[in-house]
Amino acid sequence: MNAPSLSLCPGTTPTPKSASATLTSDSSCPIVLIMADERHEDHLKRWAKSGKAGTPPVNAATVVPIRDTDRGVEVLMLKRNSKIAFGGMWVFPGGRVDPEDGPLGSDTEEQETARRAAVREAREEAGLELNTDALIAFSHWTPPPTTPRRFLTWFFLAAAPESEIVIDGGEIHEHAWMLPLEALERRNAGEIELAPPTWITLNELTGHVDTLSALEATRARVPERFETRIAIEEDGPIAMWKGDAGWPDGDSGQPGARHRLRMRAGQWLYERSLD
Fold it and tell me: What is the mean pLDDT of the chain?
């Protein structure tokens, strides 16, 4: 996603490596996030414990490019520059919606504008030329209120064109085609960092044997909306979504239905009760 480069505002003190953010009320000076040696679940836990509200949310869009290979369905993953917001994370091509992408009035306008933003970001970050008509709405994500920088993000699925990936060398420093399961295993091994929306998307794609299956399944359903609420347990944070008994009050101890992601350091576990 588009984000300011790592820099300190005039008059501020350098942020310790263990801290997550330098915050300022001066609108001319952007909030700076430092993703240090901690894992992403550590940041989520600290942000939730602080209880401090993040920035007003802005609209964003992401496209998940997939392709068929002898190994199975592969997904294009990009590694964000470690010196920008949420640096070091492995993500899909995407970024904030810019005014030139279009209006954000009705739900239909919002989704079409997000498609154009996702196409633009894929071109800028990875050199991919996609057609807006080829993007299928996959999901929509609202982050927890305590996330320092909040993006209301549409995720789209699309078949990747047969072209060379050309990363921008600014926001993006690395790229890789990965099997969804491979990416999840590499996260568990501590080799890469993923955010919950990326993890959930990859987890769902593990159930498809080819791009046609994934695209048809996505086209046949209504894109799910995820409004994330974080609870803290002894072994790590828990992300909960609508359908979880604990979601309304953010209480992970409530008995009943489950729709949550348990984020332990060694392994993340997705729990979802059958509807």
Answer: 86
Burial of 65 (0-12, 13-18, 19+ CB in 10 A): buried
User: Number of folded domains in the chain?
Assistant: 2
Does residue 95 surpass a pLDDT of 50? yes
Same domain for 217 and 257, yes or no, is no
The per-residue pLDDT for range 175-225, each reduced to its tens digit, is: 999 999 999 999 999 999 999 999 999 999 999 999 999 999 999 999 999
What is the C-alpha to C-alpha distance for residues 168 and 60, in angstroms, rounded to an integer? 19
Domain that holds residue 211: 53-224
Do residues 206 and 73 share a domain? yes
Integer Cα distance of 187 and 88 in angstroms: 12
Is 163 found in the same domain as 108? yes
Residue with tokens 């942000």: 47
pLDDT in tens, 14-56: 333 333 332 223 333 333 333 445 788 888 888 888 888 888 9
Q: What is the structure's pLDDT at 165?
A: 96
Give yes or no: residues 90 and 139 share one domain: yes
pTM: 0.84
